[in-house]
Amino acid sequence: MNIAIVGTGYVGLVSGACFAEMGINVTCVDIDQAKIDSLLRGEIPIYEPGLDELVKRNVEAGRLHFTTDLTSCLDDVEVVFSAVGTPPDEDGSADLKYVLEVARTFGRNIKKYTILVTKSTVPVGTAAKVKQAIREELEKRGEDIEFEVASNPEFLKEGAAIKDFMSPDRVVVGIESDRARAVMTKLYRPFLTNNFRVYFMDIPSAEMTKYAANAMLATRISFMNDIANLCDIVGANVDHVRRGIGTDARIGKKFLYPGCGYGGSCFPKDVKALIKTAEKNGYEMRVLKAVEEVNQRQKSILFHKLRAVLPLSKNEEKPMESLTVALWGLAFKPETDDMRESTALVLIDELLRAGATVKVYDPVAMTECRRRIGDSVIYAKDMYDALVDADALALVTEWKLFRVPSWDVMRRLMKRHIIVDGRNIYDRDEVTAEGFTYTAIGK
User: Fold this and answer.
1) Contact at 8 Å (CB) between 351 and 326?
2) At 148, is the secondary structure helix, strand, or coil?
3) Are residue 244 and residue 337 in the same domain, yes or no?
4) pTM of the complete model beyond 0.85
5) End-of-domain residue from the set 201, 230, 259
């Protein structure tokens, strides 16, 4: 089976490598010549555990190919996946210009029945726009070639994307015909031989499912952050509360961990886009507006906790001048170098504006941080180097290497023994017994 995937970003590259691993002949297409050249050299543009080996193996096996020209492979493929970006527009809605350009290229060049599958996260109603764009290009050609569109939203977690793709808990596919259903069944059956968890539905429902899933997870996070903040005020321990409600089968234990806000490429963008979709259709998503508001506020909570425990200067504009704050973690979550909407970016900006010196360390996101903010911070060579003469440590990303630090080394290196834990990974009794002032979220 031959397929093409347009877009070699996170979704497109992971999907292409995983399809190839199952024996499918995959051509990945991107208009960025430099990115294609680097992929042909075996250089992977994103950090995802195991992806470099997967790409290399399938390129060497002749199943995974890279090109800048979609038209060069259209004659041979049965399915084209559109995995291009849908960045937020100025008003928060999803920008579909890349999605529609793929549709127009598809319409200008197909010569036989082919399915165009949208894998990008797109608002409800996008498939109709894609179909119209294809029809317009076919009319310009004077052709009446049969084609179909489908929706196949991705549910990949950064840091575990290969496992999620190779053994998905579900695959959602929006289709309009039995013929398209048969093709998509053939494509996904190798991944689900023992339990075929492909849920076929109409296309608008498939488009909505992706947004609804991310919005629900974001809602759980913001809800628990609100509960944690109230726990801080009334003297409750959010860890006890979390365990108490998580044992209720109707609630469950997942996504009940409070922290310093969610980030990344999906939750913030998708919540905004769903709010905007509702507004365009005359409806107000009140819950999701609150979810977004709580999350934005939560990204500043570490700064406010640091202000509460650090000795501040009398300079109101620069209350943290002469203070040094170390940050452990820059990526929005572990096992990725993705800093999109990262809490670390908000905290760094607030600290710098307050006059503090900021030292940072992240096991994989240092290069990305330098690309984003340059040399406004000090880049440490390891986690302990970041602590030299630090007045406080802010734990922002819960990487495994931060979980069991050497308290003795930390005491020797830090000027003041203050820890603000933005992910609640440490035990308060242990940390305080080691001589540190410890502040967490909701504890």
Assistant:
1) no
2) strand
3) no
4) yes
5) 201
310-329 pLDDT, tens per residue?
999 999 899 999 999 999 99
**Over 70: is that where the pLDDT of 99 sits?**
yes
Listed residue (317, 402, 386) closest to 352, CA to CA: 317
Residues 322 and 421 in one domain: yes
Whether 260 and 343 have beta carbons less than 8 Å apart is answered as: yes
- Cα separation, 157 vs 259, whole angstroms: 18
Q: Is the pLDDT of residue 91 over 80?
A: no
Q: Range of 103's domain? A: 2-201
Choosing from 297, 322, 344, the residue where a domain stops is 297
Domain of 107, CATH number, reads: 3.40.50.720
Q: Which tokens go with 363? A: 């096991």
Quick one: tokens of 381? 């060579």
Describe the strand order of the beta sheet including 25-29 as a list of residue ranges.
64-67, 25-29, 2-6, 79-82, 114-118, 147-151, 171-174, 198-201
Among 441, 438, 359, CA closest to 405 = 438
pLDDT recorded at residue 90: 67
Q: Are residues 178 and 226 in the same domain?
A: no
Q: Per the structure, how many domains does the chain have?
A: 3
Q: Are residues 311 and 430 in the same domain?
A: yes
Would the pLDDT of 89 be above 90? Answer: no
Token representation of residue 399: 């990487």
441 contact partners, CB below 8 Å, separation of at least 6: 225, 228, 229, 232, 238, 258, 259, 260, 301, 421, 422, 423, 424
Catalytic residue flag (residue 266)? yes
Residue 87 exposed, middle or buried by CB count within 10 Å (0-12, 13-18, 19+)? exposed
Q: Which one is catalytic: 73, 231, 266, 369?
A: 266
